[in-house]
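Worked Example 4.2. Consider the chain below.
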Amino acid sequence: MGHHDRRSEASGTTALSEAILPLLGGLRSRADAARRDLPDLGGPIDLLRKEGVLSAVLPAPEGSGLGWVRGTARPLSDMLRHIGAADLALARLVEGHVNAAILVEIHAERPARDAMRRAVREGALLGVWGADGAQPLEWVDRAEGDVSLSGSKRYASGLGHVDLALITARAAAGAPPRMFLVPATNPSRHDHEAWTASAMRASRSGTFDATGLVLDETGFVGPAGALTTEPWFEGGVWRYCAAHVGGAEGLIERWIEVLRRMGRLDDPVQRDRLGHAMADTIAARAVVEAAADAVEHSAEASPQGVERAVAHGLMAREAVEGACIRILALCERSLGMIAHDSQGSIDRMRRDLSLFLRQAAPDAKLDRALRTAEDIGPGRLR
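Applying the procedure from the previous section yields the following structure tokens:
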């Protein structure tokens, strides 16, 4: 496991979260204007890069250790929520960047850690691609001490934007996954046509073919099986939940604007719907913040403490999903066909949030949390 200093750098992260606030209006306007075509996130990513969002994952003094240093969880939650309210696809890429940095900082030895930091200093966007394609990704040791890869990853977000991707591969079917950091900019390895979903189009997702890549020690991130070490695996679900809450907040903001233009903002029935939707977002935000705090504080806790924090995060995921589903239903009932108008401000956010909520194995996540909670009660999931 890599060696790292997790002392608090929260003040720098809080300042960064506040610094991006003036950018959000422009990010949202760009996202709404591009709703009918395939939006290009290159410009928004450049804005965040210039503001120091990407370099924030570096240790001080170049960054604040965003996501892996104590005291940065709550500001990170705020940042993902704010970006999610403007553009969920952009929030998805930022969350992937932070997740990749966390995994490298926590698990990698110095060669890979230094390689990642050097790339980020030069402006690189990181990503995490875990889902195997038609040919599951495998790795093979070479005589020179290097590793060669074969296979592909699907649902690879940020193709064409991500410079370095953290991917998983197995030595053989059924073996524990091992993490690798791979160059991801070669367009001949990208298949954008593989992404056929009707939403999150701006994330530029697709399939990444890793066949033939050869990696040295700068690409090795921990031993096989390190990926599932908690609280850095399932414990991190609160991050994308923060983006979900932001998406719900952004949807409500757009919904209010539509009702105001229609002259229906004072309609008692509409106000009842809006009130319930806002109550759900406020509760969901509080749930995510509590989960972020619990997971962050558990990083050096006992195994039992870690598992309780992870269960807290997984329960938060369930609560946020439920809140967002209710908000989507209220918005669609309120606006009717207007919510589905591809030329309106609601449709893309509605579709993106609905798809982004569909994370892998939700039932298994809930069952894992319940197995911890059923013996101690929900009040002790901290």
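The mean pLDDT is 92. The beta strands are 126-129, 138-141, 147-150, 152-153, 164-169, 178-183, 190-191, 207-209, 214-215, 220-221. Compare this with Example 4.1 before moving on.
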